[in-house]
Amino acid sequence: MSSHLILASGSKARQMLLKNAGLEFSAVPASVDERAIEESLPLAGRDPVSVARHLALAKANEVSRRFPGTYVIGCDQTMSLGSKIFHKANSIAEARETLLALRGRAHFLNSAVCLVRDEQLLWSEVVKACMQVREFSDEFLAGYLQRNGDAALSSVGCYQLEGEGVQLFDTIAGDYFTILGLPLLPLLAALRQHEINHA
Question: Considering 95, 97, 136, 184, which has the largest number of Cβ atoms within 10 A of its Cβ?
Fold first, then answer.
């Protein structure tokens, strides 16, 4: 392993954020069954924040088992509307249903990040962003899904804020890093505290 820091994620957006921040790291996607982990939680512990936190830790620990002595960053993001947790759509029809459910309403992106070494949790945090979706027309939605196709299936909200998905919103309360799935500023502070980030 070329670095003593590993990002337990295959997300290109998360890798870009760490690279742009000047960190040296390796990316090793975790191999976990997210739905099985979520379903194993007691019903009282299946709120969107707890689910994100548990999944981030599970991913970090899975990679940590494979690379002893290495600092591992685990991440996960849930999207919630009230108490309902959304998952990635499996078809354009499901994406349409998701976006119709979000239309004209505010939902939350709950981004969890943790730092683990030898399966010991050193630090974790969950940061929220509030996303107010505008009252878009049925015609806009049909065109959006036609233009974005499979890209709409690659994220839980069926949008990428860095692309045409930004057209879905009236207002956003939260930082860009959290929306992309990695609360970068608190993570950088934690890495400095553990003398991993010398910036």
Answer: 95
Dihedral (CA of 135, 107, 59, 44) sign: negative
| Residue 145 in tokens | 């899904």
> Residue 180 falls within a domain, yes or no?
yes
Cα 50 to its chain centre, rounded Å, is 13
Q: Which of 74, 82, 76 is nearest to 107 (CA)?
A: 82
* Residue 29 belongs to domain with CATH number: 3.90.950.10
Residue 198 counted as domain residue:
no
Q: How many domains does the chain have?
A: 1
**Cα–Cα distance for residue pair 110/115, rounded to 1 Å:** 17
Active site amino acids: 76
Query: pTM, whole model, 2 decimals?
Result: 0.89
Owner of token pair 């459910």:
101
Q: What is the pLDDT of residues 23-65, one digit of tens each?
A: 999 999 999 888 888 888 888 778 999 999 999 999 999 999 9
Q: How far apart are CA 129 and CA 113, in angstroms?
A: 14
Enclosing domain of residue 14 = 5-193
